[in-house]
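seq:
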Amino acid sequence: MIKTSPLLRTLTLFITVFGCAAASFAQGEASGGRVPTTPTKPKDTSTAPKAPTTPKRSGALDNISGKWWTTGNDFGASEIVITQTGANISGAITFADGRTGSLNGTLVGKRLQHTWSSSDGNGGSGWLELSWANFLGGPWRNQRVKDGSWTLNRIEGQWCFGGNRSRARRVTHDARGQLTIVTEDGTQEEGHMEGPYLFLDLNGQSIKGDMFYKGNRVDFANGFFWTWCGR
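struct:
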């Protein structure tokens, strides 16, 4: 028979008791004996499609105040001077044939819901979309016209020759589409509008310009171009 020392017997007993206590503690944790301080969120294993999130719309409104050149079927050439107060829009229309009119509406986001009337008793309602900084367009209708449409082009303002801000020219127009252009050195030139096209009338020639609304730019037939410099 092998004799063990009292010290060895004491050490063996301590190891046995400590092992049982540790096992009991581990069992208590596994059975929920301790509440974790930061519960973990279960992983979503669902394959169901998630509902799309709705992007937040900026509270800032676009400013469409100023003079616009208008064209459209069953509407005619005109200029309209728009005044914006918050989301409320009012406008004074002067047609190329001498008639006058008014526009009233509300701008929500980039869409203008409006009604308009003219001095000869005509009128209508519809909406205009601000697709680009220099373009408004959309449909209108009344009892006689079911598929009317019109566009508003922002021509009046400063345009930079070749995109150069040191060569800005100030452009304005009247209700008949006649343009007045003052260059950076004070020289006055002329032009005119035909529908959505801008023409420079220089030295007996008429140089056509195509509006590239998305780029706020006018490209001329002679290879030159203007870019919008603001009002």
